[in-house]
Automatic annotation (TrEMBL):
Pfam families assigned to the protein according to its UniProt record, in alphabetical order: TENA_THI-4 (PF03070)
Organism (species): Camelina sativa
InterPro entries (alphabetical): Haem_Oase-like_multi-hlx, Thiaminase-2/PQQC, Thiamine_Salvage_TenA
Name of the coding gene: LOC104746042
Entry-linked SUPFAM superfamilies: Heme oxygenase-like
Thiaminase-2/PQQC domain: residues covered: 29-235
Protein name: Bifunctional TENA-E protein
């Protein structure tokens, strides 16, 4: 192949990749500052640079355990909608995979609790946690469009994936006792799962009305705001 043809085919490849960018990436660009606030929060950065305050980690652990228990019904409702509305059996399989991993997640939290001496039976959900779960509960309504629900679901999972993957990237000083948490959400399998959820959301949004698009964008921003508030709890905010 001549150099000219090679350059042209590389250009074409790049063009195709750019064309594949969906509306979610456009929204992330538009709302970059809140996206960065959610995925590079000081708590996460402190895990990565090793300066994390372990009482903050304990607070996060207790609050996230309660969150995950509340998140299960939300994922279950996404699963029901995937079965009813998607018309694509793979949607259901992707969500079912996420649901199944939540089982392991709850067990992981329990093991961590005994490691960190956290008694979940005494942990009280803080305001940010309650508000986030109330928001997700509202999204379980049949009135909420499948595309909107799927966008929220993706954003919730993606924030954890991006945050914890950051703690494992080159140059990290993540304390070895916290790498389990980072691998849980920062591993390649979870990244792949998030990418599958994103593709589902993108496919739904391609055919969505203007109204649904506006709702999905709003829900995406709100999830990011709730995630920031959630991280803030670890620093003692309520
Ligand atoms: C607050 C929060 N957001 C997302 C995740 C990932 N399921 C989580 N465990 N907690």
């Amino acid at each position: 192949m001549t150099l000219k043809i090679l350059v042209r085919s590389e250009k074409k490849k790049k063009q195709l990749q750019m064309e594949k960018r969906g509306v979610i990436d456009t929204w992330i660009d538009k709302h970059r500052s809140i996206y960065t606030a959610a995925t590079r929060h000081a708590f996460v950065v402190s895990i990565r640079d090793g300066s994390v305050d372990l009482s903050s980690f304990r607070t996060w652990l207790g609050q996230d355990y309660l969150f995950v228990r509340g998140f299960v019904p939300f994922v279950a409702s996404v699963l029901i909608r995937a079965g009813k509305e998607s018309g694509e059996s793979s949607d259901m399989e992707v969500v079912l995979g996420g649901m199944a991993s939540l089982n392991g997640e709850i067990e992981w939290f329990k093991t961590e609790a005994s490691k960190w001496d956290v008694d979940f039976s005494t942990v009280v959900p803080q305001k940010a946690n309650q508000e986030y779960l109330r928001f997700l509960e509202a999204l379980m309504s049949n009135e909420v469009k499948y595309s909107v629900m799927m966008t929220a679901f993706w954003a919730t999972e993606a924030v954890y994936q991006e945050s914890f993957a950051h703690c494992l990237e080159d140059g990290n000083k993540t304390p070895v006792e916290l790498t389990g948490a980072c691998h849980r959400w920062g591993n390649d399998g979870f990244k792949q799962y998030c990418s599958s959820v994103k593709s589902i959301a993108e496919r739904c949004l391609e055919n969505a009305s203007g109204e649904a698009l506006a709702e999905a964008e709003d829900v995406l921003v709100r999830v990011l705001e709730y995630e920031v508030a959630f991280w803030e709890m670890s620093r003692g905010g309520d």
